[in-house]
Amino acid sequence: MAEEFENDLNKLMKQKIEKYKEFKERGIKNYDDKYKVDTYAQDILGNFDEYEGETVKMAGRIMALRTHGKASFADIQDTSGQMQLYVKVDLIGEERYELFTELDIGDIVGIEGEVFQTNRGQTSVKVKEFTLLTKSLRPLPEKFHGLKDKEMRYRQRYLDLIMNPEVKETFEIRSKIIRSFRDILEEKGFLEVETPMMHPIPGGANAKPFVTHHNALDMELYLRIAPELYLKRLIVGGFDRVYEINRNFRNEGMSYKHNPEFTTLELYQAQADYHDMMDITEKLVVESAEETLGTTELNYQGKDIDLSIPWRRVTMKELVKEETGFDYNALKDSNAAYKRAKEIGVKIEDDDLSKGEVLYEIFEKLVEEDLIQPTFVMDYPIEVSPLAQKKDNEPEFTYRFEAFINGWEIANAFSELNDPFEQKERFKQQMENREAGDEEAQMMDEDFIKALEYGMPPTGGLGIGLDRLIMLMTDSKSIRDVIFFPTMKPEQKN
Asked: Which CATH number is correct for 165-311+373-481, 3.30.930.10, 3.30.420.40, 3.90.226.10, 3.40.50.620?
């Protein structure tokens, strides 16, 4: 079947290339210069009364072509939608009409014509002149079957966008959400900044980095796993409110909600704590949903989700006890925690975890996937939060939360650790974990410690995974549906 398809494709492509050569011999330009456009399809479709009888100039890709003797109809697609063209020999002359009928589906044309409605009431443009702007050499997928193969759609996103207009809408919503985030943060006095993509030391998160080599400096560099430590350096330097929207890179597994490169918002605010970060998270998500979707009521893959404020705020200890009966406070030590975990059906491979780490394992395995409605899970164990301030009254826990929607972590935030002595000890513990085989553990960052020694004010920090949030807001099944060019394996050649 695949071989038959390739043969058909090669045959059609050969025909199109022959036509390209023929046009060239006849002095017809296959690739013209820019074309001055003054109107788009949606302008006319949304305001027909204003445009009826007016002359417009449009450009678009031919998506359908129907020839009927001395008159033809065509559909062209521009960035806003599709418009029907009516082309008649009496209006453009026999020579130009014959050329129009020789055009192929996929060709890009510029047209000038009058807006009218056909006898059947369809809004159209009566073409007075046209220009071939771009000759398409590859045939578009057959319209009835369309472009449905997901691998091909992700690999050839440009073709996906041509054939599946709803895909374009998803990415337009993505752009609006990110713009909304920027608008909200600018109103709150945050400064947008840029920090390095290549780090001498990977830090800011527990993750396996990508490694590269800088020839001139003869040194290893790491694609950043998070911008956190650089953004906090800016807080040390005197900026009170900073944020960055950009890519992170993690050399880890892939799934419907994981891509090796992904987009996050990270922000830091001096004289703030993790409660302030909860307020900002709610504001960003809710206001962007209202602005882009017109509602805070989502339906994601059949599940109703209410984003409206306030979101539930609950500690990890309370939530795990509520959902599983595992009572952290009632357990004497890690041995008791292991025993209780086994009783509730959680198998823990590592036999050297603390009581807090056992709590975290239970939360990850039994609780988080059921957090469908927006929930702030607060106060994470110190062992899994190396950059967060520990709680005054419970030093085995930290002022950290993660926000969950649909069972996914969509935000992570701390009251930031600003004690350089304690931060150094936390890094040392991470290094021990690394030496014991944990490839995701963080490294010692002496320069960051030096920055803290100059003094970082009390600070709240927040990271939001934009791709997952956009998945929710666009009802997209896979993270690859909301990233223009997701990471793919090389195409297999026969």
From this structure: 3.30.930.10
Question: How is residue 115 annotated by DSSP?
Answer: E
Nearest CA to 464 out of 171, 185, 270 is that of 185
Token duo for residue 433 = 């974990």
State the Cα torsion 346-350-356-358 to the nearest 10°. 0
CA geometry: angle at 390 spanning 389 and 393, to 5°?
A: 135
Write the CA distances from 283 to 277, 382, 466, integer angstroms.
10, 28, 15
Residues of the chain within CATH 2.40.50.140 domain(s) are 2-140
Query: Strand ranges (DSSP E) for 144-260?
Result: 191-192, 198-199, 211-214, 219-223, 241-249
From CA 62, how far away is CA 471, in angstroms rounded?
31
User: Cα–Cα distances in Å, from 280 out to 44, 284, 307, 411?
Assistant: 40, 6, 14, 11
The Cα 71–Cα 103 span in angstroms is 14
Sheet containing 408-415, strands listed edge to edge, beginning at the edge strand earlier in sequence: 191-192, 241-249, 261-270, 459-465, 408-415, 400-405, 375-378, 312-315
Q: Which CATH number fits domain 2-140: 3.30.70.260, 2.40.50.140, 1.10.10.10, 2.60.40.10?
A: 2.40.50.140
Alpha helices in 332-419 (DSSP H): 334-343, 355-362
Residues of CATH 3.30.930.10 domain(s) within the chain?
165-311+373-481
pLDDT by residue, tens only, the chain of 494 residues: 445 545 666 888 999 999 999 999 999 999 999 999 999 999 999 999 999 999 999 999 999 999 988 999 999 999 999 999 999 999 999 999 999 999 999 999 999 999 999 999 999 999 999 999 999 999 998 754 456 678 888 999 999 999 998 899 999 999 999 999 999 999 999 999 999 999 999 999 999 999 999 999 999 999 999 999 999 999 999 999 999 999 999 999 999 999 999 999 999 999 999 999 999 999 999 999 999 999 999 999 999 999 999 999 999 999 999 999 999 999 999 999 999 999 999 988 888 899 999 999 999 999 999 999 999 999 999 999 999 999 999 999 999 999 999 999 999 999 999 999 999 999 999 999 989 888 888 999 999 999 999 999 999 999 999 999 999 999 999 999 999 999 998 877 65
Mark residue 67 as left, alpha or beta (left: phi above 0; alpha: psi -120 to 50; beta: remaining).
beta
Enumerate the β-bridge partners of residue 408.
405
Q: Model pTM?
A: 0.92
Please return the burial class of 377, using the count of CB atoms within 10 Å of its CB with bins 0-12, 13-18 and 19+.
buried
